[in-house]
Amino acid sequence: MIVRLGLAAALLLALVPLHLSLGSGLPFAELWPALTGAEPDGVAAALLSYAAGPRAVVAVLAGAALGLAGSVLQQVTRNRLVSPLTIGASSGAWLALVAGAVAAPALVAAHGIWFAMGGALAATGLVLVIAGRNGITGLPVVLAGMAVNLLLQAVATVVVLTNGEAVRSLFIWGAGDLTQTGWDWAAWLWPQVLGGVLVLLLCIRPLMLLKLGTEAAAGRGLALLPVLLVAVLAALWLTASVITAVGVIGFIGLLAPALARMTGARSAGGEMLASLVLGALVLLATDALALFAGQYTRDLVPSGAAAALIGVPVLIGLTLRRLRAQDHAPLRMPEGAPRLRPGLAMLVAAGAVALVLASLTLAPTAEGWHMAWPSDLVLSLRWPRLVAAAAAGAGMALAGVVLQRLLRNPLASPDIIGISSGATLALVGAVVLLGGSIHDFGAPVALLGGLGALAVLLMLGRRQGHAPAAVALVGIALAALLDAVLQMVLARGGADAVMVVGWLAGSTARVTEGQALALAAAVLLLTVVAVAAHRWLTLLAGGEAFAAGRGLAVGPARTFLLALGAVTAAAVTAVVGPIAFVGLIAPHLAALLGARRSGQHLMLACGLGVVLMVLSDWLGRTMLHPVQLPAGAMASVIGGGYFLLLLLARRGGIAAGRAA
Question: How far apart (Å, rounded) are the C-alpha atoms in residues 167 and 582?
Answer without folding.
Answer: 28
